[in-house]
From TrEMBL:
Gene this protein is translated from: lysS
Organismal lineage: Bacteria, Bacillati, Actinomycetota, Actinomycetes, Micrococcales
Enzyme Commission code: 6.1.1.6
Protein name stated in the entry: Lysine--tRNA ligase
Cofactor(s) the record lists: Mg(2+)
Residues given in the record as Mg(2+) 1 binding sites: D422, E429
Reactions catalysed according to its record: tRNA(Lys) + L-lysine + ATP = L-lysyl-tRNA(Lys) + AMP + diphosphate
Family classification: Belongs to the class-II aminoacyl-tRNA synthetase family.
Location relative to the cell: Cytoplasm
Broad EC category: ligase
Comp. bias (Low complexity): 1-10
Organism: Microbacterium aurantiacum
Record-linked InterPro entries: Aa-tRNA-synt_II, aa-tRNA-synth_II, aa-tRNA-synth_II/BPL/LPL, Lys-tRNA-ligase_II, Lys-tRNA-ligase_II_N, Lys-tRNA-synth_II_C, NA-bd_OB-fold, NA-bd_OB_tRNA
Segments for region (Disordered): 1-20
Predominant subcellular localization, coarse grouping: cytoplasm
Amino acid sequence: MSDTAPDAAPAPEPTEEDVFEQKAVRLAKRERLIGERADAAGGAYPVTVPVTDTIPALRARFGDLEAGAETGVTASVAGRIVFSRNTGKLCFATLQSGDGSRIQAMVSLAQVGEESLQAWKELVDLGDHVSVTGEVISSRRGELSIMVTAWQIAAKAILPLPNMYSELSEESRVRSRFLDLIVRDRARETVVARSTVNASLRSTFAAHDFVEVETPMLQVQHGGASARPFITHSNAFDTDLYLRIAPELFLKRAVVGGIDRVYEINRNFRNEGADSTHSPEFAMLEAYQSYTDYRGIADLTQELIQNAAVAVAGSTTVTWADGTEYDLGGQWDRLSMYDSLSAAAGRTLSPETPYDDLVALAEEHGVELPPHPIHGKLVEELWEHFVKPTLTRPTFVMDFPLDTSPLVREHRSIPGVVEKWDLYVRGFELATGYSELVDPVIQRERFVEQAKLAARGDLEAMRIDEEFLRALEHGMPPTGGMGMGIDRLLMAITGLGIRETILFPLVK
């Protein structure tokens, strides 16, 4: 039991009036710190404070001390006060470091003197950052502590912390992530998990001799995906520019230039809806490997994800936030889009199925027609209705309709489809992969068809990119490529929603 544990039920959240009053009181304390303690103790916001050790380092070194033990070791540590209790001649405070590690500070009359003790009681509040110096001990209750001989404010908090004993609402967590990081372990763990995932991805790529590059985020022409872009304006060039929707066309230029294995972890922007799996701004991984195809890039994608799971969870069996276990191990299933749709719908569906028959099937089952419907979009909508809900294990869905995949090579043996897969994990699309279209003549034809869709009002259709076509005309080797959302990868490993996996998501 901690010496700082509360003796009563948690207090309710402060009202706006309470916060206003607390802010006024704390501002007065700030003035006192600046006026009375500026010379001796550095005021309210000193440039630096004594720090010889971190809280996690002291816990690692002395975490097994028996109750009442003394070490004879003097240390200076700094942290945010998250609990406090002042009782006569002895005050207790719990200091928290950035990773959530905690240590107790014991401020006693015998060690610091009457003036310093009184100043602590009058000037120090919950939420303040403080530096304390003293002997490392274990309290009589077994709490690792600093028996303080000197202390100093490191940063005065003007606003109070939220109630440390109750969860912030999801909306509060998203809008005030800095508070979420202070009060909730899961928030800090998710930040660390994301960093661990990125490190794992880079490590796996390094093991396969990939080169990491950076491509433009501002582009004169958007491309590389079917999505609606954000548009901005460059004053210097007096021209409209697009925020990147995908790095694909620039990464392929790198492949043309001889970087046979290339990848980028980047920020993309799509001016579309936001929901539990979509954000207008998101992190994405794209990778391209020469002399492989969509099956080889699927093998690499599985390895990337499984290695990331092991890095975060220690196993390919991950435990989600709700306690559910999910198995990312083993060899993942691969199924045909058309074959699986035919089996689920109870009739044979193929690239030759008449468009009107697809419309009739959609209407029969209440499947909403997509905007600007074409054969491939109808097939994909029907597949999502009939098959997607049945997927439980990680699954590569293979061989997509030709007319929805303008950057993908036509299947080598099945007419009317392309060599493309989508990877579904935890009920959502996590990644997509292609055998890349490298024939510049056919690529131009595909772009022309996309331009016709754009002329009919399809805001997600691609435009003709002459610079990209010129690069292809210099020769691009057979290549497999993939793209994967980093935010969604975190969702697959942690079980969290997309707004939880993004540190500072866009909110209205």
